[in-house]
Structure formats: structure tokens, C-alpha cells
Amino acid sequence: MTEPAQIVRGDGRLLASSRLAGTLNVLGVYILVAALFAIGCGISREFLAAENLLNALRAVTLMGIVAVGVAFITYSRHYVDLSIPGIMALSGTVAVWALQYGIVASLAAGLAAGLVIGLINGMVVGCLRLNPIIWTLAMMSVLSGVIRWAYAGRQIYPDEATAAGRAFLDLYHHAVFGVVPLPVVVLIIAAVAGHFVMRHSGYGAALKLTGSNYEVARLSGIRVKRVVAWAFVISSLTSGVAGILLTSFNKVGAVYIGDGYDFKTVTAVVLGGMTLAGGRGNVAGVMGGVMAIALMNNVMSLVRIGEFTIGQFQQNIVQGAVFILVVGINSFSRRKAGRDDA
Amino acid sequence: MLAPAFALFPHTRVVYDRSKAGLELGACRAATGRAKAPMADIGDDIGIALRMEGVSKRFPGTLAVDGVDFAVRAGEVHALIGENGAGKSTLMKVLAGAFNDYTGQVSLNNKPVLLHSPAAAKAAGIQMIHQELSLAGPVSIAENVLAGRLPRKGPLLDRRRMLAECRQHLARVGLELDPVTPVEEISLHEAQLVEIAKALANSPCILVMDEPTSSLGREEVARLFEIIRRLRRQGLAVIYISHHLPEVLQIADRVTVLRDGRKVATEDIADVTSARLVEMMVGRNVATLYTQRRGRPGAVRLAVRGLSRWGFFHDVSFSAASGEIVGLGGLSGAGRSELARSLCGIDPLDAGRIELDGRPVRPRNYRDAIAAGLAYLTEDRKAQGLALRMTMGENMLSAIIPRLCRFGLFSRRRGEATMAELIGSLDINPPQPRRMASALSGGNQQKVLLGKWLLACPKVLILDEPTRGVDVGAKVTIHRAIAELADAGTCVILISGDLPELVGLSDRILIMRRGRLIGQIPRGQAGETSVLLAANGEGRLAPA
């Protein structure tokens, strides 16, 4: 009769370690944020300047908006939407094109264009069960082709002579109540809404079950296809919003504006404790991941040792390494604990 | 993992060396030349290809195989039979090298061997043919048969030799197929024979066949048996696992019966009958405690007419009343789970009508079915029943997410009171809804799964193996819960391979065989023996 006791002990230890890992996953990213903050303070005096910190956050606001949507896809265990740069570019260019019908029509058309792509992605990946990586990769290629073709490779510019054009260009710089930049307001709304939907809606509960175990969800009466499809639609919405804001900032609608957002956002999502295995993590953690990337890039840009500085290229290397490290540690520790039922 | 196992059993340490052990097929053949021992129980070592002595394998909480002695002669077909959970597959897994912590002695051709890894078992000349084929569909027959040891010419594949060798191996099982044909282009029974050819290509000494006829028609079975007989003449020792007693009586020379992890007996096939075998398999006292039912079956709740899903079940008609527990008996593969899944809209239906409380229902998907009052508790708890990395509470509420929503807002609190009550009445231990499902024991996981469907309050609950792999205590609790559920008016359909459970709980038992409902046994006449005989196509049955 000694054996059952051993089993319980073994189980208990496993449980404790997994609970610790779970807490660390979400809390851990904020510990990382704090650590980066401390490093920043130590490395340079400029770091703590309000101007610098605001710049650091401004640089990731749009990425944060996109990351909220991507979080839904990762949560559903469909990894990432690689067509995000394409959706951003499409929403941006369509919005610029529709400026001729006024600012409201422009925004509506831009968002609608993104949503249509999200709907197609959702139908194909959710309902037809195609591999999400391959399908969205193909969608990306199609989108960039379509945009280049439509404008014969040229870029299009909002017309500053019209009121609508001026309103569009003001979007990114508009300050709500005269203080808070509009993108920040959008980010806060997206994050709060995303967190609420994921944690407190019927859809969120169904999404969690689907992401944790697709087959169990199906055999619990969840309409899994629809649930997955919606995740792609949500992601396309946030991508569209970010695409329009980015176009407003760049003052140009072009095919390349969203480049890099696919990988950067999924890095933030994973860093924020939402594992690729699905059904774990939350939007609060993802926001921590976005902040960590902001500080990481900022700290790196402040490093100056003689002639040596860390530029954009080196930052890309570090981001890639961080992604591999986080995903690697995560799956390794779960496999070690015998918990990788994914 | 390996090191401590070796430390525990230092006496079993041996060196694997095929040539030393003399395990080539030729050696096996030489051994068969001698006279067979006349008696069933083998006392001498002459012609014994495999001997297992006092083999045990413990899983947490159960002794799956308990001191089994088992010997197979070269040149005989030895059937291994027993109910589900009797220990057949565990014993064969020991032989296949799946465990490194079994106890007892295994010898091949009178030389002790240590089967602590699949590679070691293969090297020792043991080959398995499982129910599920292990062939790669898009790859040619030749590459499948010779997988892992394709003939080479320097760094290149020696194609001509590969094809020639493959033809030779195919000829042994009487197949004349072109070796370059991809496996997915040949029929299922041909694939089964290719699988055998692949096993034989490794020149085994022992060939284990697990339900080899489950996917075969009558003529193909006859052909397979001819091949098995030829292999027997060539001196191969064949271990034949099957639930189909007529086949066992036809093909086997001797039969060993297992029950509850122990060996009941080994008999010459000439000395036994189906009835005797069933008696040995069942054996135990049926007086196990089954709670007395209080309720009486009420009005007809579920009526199905001519239900078919081509290839799985055909023209199934029956009805079940509220407050009734209807057992569904039959061998594995008889189409019971498939019937249940189609009934609940999980799998498609090709024909037939379903009526619930007199109204026709036709669930397009499982969600519709749940809303209409049908529910199915899956037999595969880990892959289809519970999301193990979610908490126990989340799992219990997972089937009623739509009901816990108001205006799209999800609140666990609405279900928590009922859930807490269920956790108490099902005696789930520890009663902590926030605990991870993966941290619960098998019995408690099964209770959580049952609780998940009880919370959905179905009118008809179909239970597929509700106590598979659970301990006795949990079993009693689950049985009590099922009886209470029926007493409260739910119509319960019980699919179980656990015969005492099926007989003890059911008000009547419908028998399915090869996709058809062949009849029913009323409660008074249902016994484990009658059910098992009926499932094998023997005995008398009342029309359903």
C-alpha cells in the first residue's frame, strides 16, 4: 500500500511544477519587463527620459493592436496568420482609394477589405481544415500580387488637398481629449475587449476548449469550425485597423507597409505566455510581451560601446533568437514534465 | 529509465546476439523436427519456442499480468483468449518489448532473454501483427516489406534485388502482386497479407497475430488460415489472439485462457468447446453487487428504425424507454460505437429514422443532438473525452457552455452549484474544481467525464465503456450513478465489453454482430455466458 502514496506525491510534484510554469508564463513576462527596465536605467541616462519611453511605446502601439488579434489565433492552436502584412497593406490601400467618397467610407471600406480576407482565411482554415501556416502564406502571396497589380507597382498617396485626405493623415497623430494619441486609445480598447471576450464570453470558453483539445471540443458539441473561423476574422479586424493607422502614419498606401508584423506579433504573443500549443495564456500577458519587445528594442538602440551600436538588423537577430528561446524552453519544459499532450 | 530497471533485476542481464541465441528461422525449424509433447501442459523443454515463467507487469494501482506461465511450441498455433482487461494485450506487449519493468523469466528456445525494448524483441525474433496495419500507404509494397534493410549496391538502392526478394516474401503468403505497386492501391485484405509478409521477411521465430481477421471476409479468412497452417508446417510458432471463438476452434492447436491477469488454463483444442471456453473466460461469480433498481421503465423515449451507415452498421431498429438501461453487447468491431456516434450526429447517417419522445429528430451535428437531449460519453477518455490540460471544473462545464451564457457572456457561476453537488455525489477526489484534469486518477477522470454529461441533463445518455481502466471503487460509484440516473427517468444505453457490468446493469441486452442487430436477451435470461455466445453468433436470441 505504499505505492499509491508515491503516485500521489509524484502527481503533486508535477502539478506544482506545472502551476508554477503557468504562473511564470503570464507573470514571467512582467518580470522580464521589469528586468529590462532596470537594465535600461543602468545602461543609459537617456532611458528614463519621458521622451524616450514614449517613443519606445509608440513604436509598438500598432504591433500591440495586431497582437491582440493574433492572440486569438494562437489561443485556438492555429499558430499564426502569416497574411497579416498583406491584410494591413490591403486595408491601407483600399482606405486611401476610398478617400474619394469621404473619410467614413474610406475607413469602412478599409476595414471591410481586411474582414473579407479574414473571412476567407477562416472559412478555409476553420471549415476546410487546411494547414493555417501554408494557407495564410499563400494568401499573403496572393494579396501582395493583387495590390501590386491593381496599382501597377506604384504607391498611392492620400490627397492632402481634400478634407477627407487631411482627416485621414491626421488619424495617427490625432490626440483624444488633446492628450492621448488615437492609436494608444485603440490599443487600450482592443486589449480590454480582447481580454474580456477571451475570458468572459461564451465564445472565449469555446475557444479555450477548442485550442486545448480540438477533438474533445468537437465531442462536447462545440461548433469548432465556426470557432476557429472567428479567430481569423478577429485577427483580420485588428490587422485592418492597424493597417489603416500605419498608412495614415506613412502617408502612403503601399504593399510593403506591414512587413515583419507577422513574426513580430507572434513573438510578442509567445513571449506573453500564450504557448503555441493553444488554450493557455491571456491578453494581459500578450500586452506584457509587447511591452517587453518595446523595451528590448529600446535598450538595444541605446547601447553604445565605442563605435559599436545595435541597429535594426541586429535587433531582428535578437528578436528571432528570443522567439526560438521562448518556444524552445516552453516545449522542452512541458515535454520534461510529461505534459505535452499537444 | 533503463538503469534502475537493470539494477532491480540484475539476474536477467543477458547479451543480445541472434547468432548466439540460435534464433534464425532455420534453428526454429530444426527444433520442430522432434516429437511433440502429447500433453497439454508442457513439462519438458523439447520443441518449446517460447516460455514465459511467472511473468508479471504492474501498472499504478493494478497488477495487469499476474505471474503468468505461458509456453508455445515451435510449429503450433497457440490461441490466447480472454475478456477485455484480462491481460492478453499486456502479456503480448511484454513479449514485444514494450516494458522494461516486467518481472519473471522469458526464454526463447530455452535460452533466457531480456525483452526490455522493442528493438531487443525484434532482434530476438519476435514479430507482431496488430489490428491496425503498420504499412506506409504511398510507398511501394517492396519498400514496405523490406523496410529498414533494403538491399544496397554501394550507396545506391539495389532495385533488382529488392524486387526479387520482395517477390519471394510475397510468395510465402500466396500473393502475386507487383512489388512496385503502392500499398494504398491494393485491397485491405491484400494489405493484411503484405503485413504478414513483412513480418515474415524478418525471419521471426514467434509470430503474434492480434485479431488478424477483423477486416477480412469469409473467403479471405479461409485463405489466411491456409497460410497460417503452411507457416505452422514450416515450424513457426504462432500466437493467435482473437475474440472470435469459432475461428479459434478452427485454427488453433492449443488455447490459453487468461482472466483478471492470471492464467486460467492451457488446453488442447480438441478438449474444449465454445461453451467451455466461455465458461473459463467468464469464470467468476456473477454475484458482484449491483444496486437494486427502484424505477420502472416508462414510455418509449427513443425509437430508431432502419438506421444505417454503410460499412459500419446496417438496418438497425430498436426502441428504448425512459428509465430503462438498455445494454448493447457484441464483439469489438461489431459497430456499437459507430451506431452511437451516428445516432448523436457526430458521424453521418446514410439511412433511417430517429424518434425522440415520439417526435422525429435528425441531428445535423453533435450540438443539435445535445440540444435535442441526446448525449454520448466517449470510450476514449483521453483523446476525446477530457481536455487534460484544463481544470476539472472547466471540463465538467464544457458540454453546457451555451447554457451558461446570457447575451454572449459566459459565467461559470451559473453551473457551479450543480457541479459542486455532482462532485459530491460522484465522490470525485480531491473535490477541487480548479485542479488540472491530468492530475486526477483514471477513475476520477472517468467520473468527471460522466459528470460532464450528467450536467447536460440528456433525455438519452449513451455510455461507451463507462468504466474502462478504472479501479473497483470508482466502478461501484459510476454504476450507482448510472442506476440512479435511470431511476430518475433518463433512458440509458450502455455499451460495454465488461460483461459482468453489462449483465448486471442492463434491463435487457441488444446484441450486435458484424454491423447488424441480431436480437436481444431479456434481463432474466442474460448471463455473461449467453451474451458472449450470442456475440459470437451462437445461442438463442429473442427478436429485438
Structure description:
The complex is a heterodimer of chains A (342) and B (544). Chain A is an all-alpha fold. Chain A has a domain at 66-281. Chain A contains 13 helices and four strands. Chain B folds into three domains: 2-125 and 204-282, Rossmann fold, CATH 3.40.50.300; 134-202, no CATH class; 300-535, P-loop containing nucleotide triphosphate hydrolases (Rossmann fold, 3-Layer(aba) Sandwich), CATH 3.40.50. Chain B is 33% helix and 24% strand. Chain B has 20 helices and 24 strands. In chain B, the strands form six sheets. Chain B has a six-stranded mixed β-sheet, with helices on both faces. Chain B has a six-stranded mixed β-sheet with strand order 18-21-22-15-23-24, sandwiched between helices. The longest helix of chain B has 16 residues, at 218-233. Chain B is globular, with a radius of gyration of 26 Å. Chain B starts with a helix and ends in a 9-residue tail after the last helix. The model of chain B is unreliable at 1-43 (pLDDT under 50). Chain A binds chain B through residues 3-4, 7, 11-12, 14-15, 18, 200-206, 208-209, 212-213, 215-223, 279-280, 339, 341, and chain B through 60-61, 346, 365-367, 369-371, 376, 378, 383-390, 394, 398-399, 401-402, 404-405, 408-411, 435-436, 438-439, 441, 452.
Please sum up the structure shown:
The complex is a heterodimer of chains A (342) and B (544). Chain A is mostly helical and 342 residues long.
Give the key terms.
heterodimer, A: two-stranded antiparallel sheet, 13 helices, 74% helix, globular, B: 544 residues, alpha/beta, Rossmann fold, 3 domains, 6-stranded mixed β-sheet, 24% strand
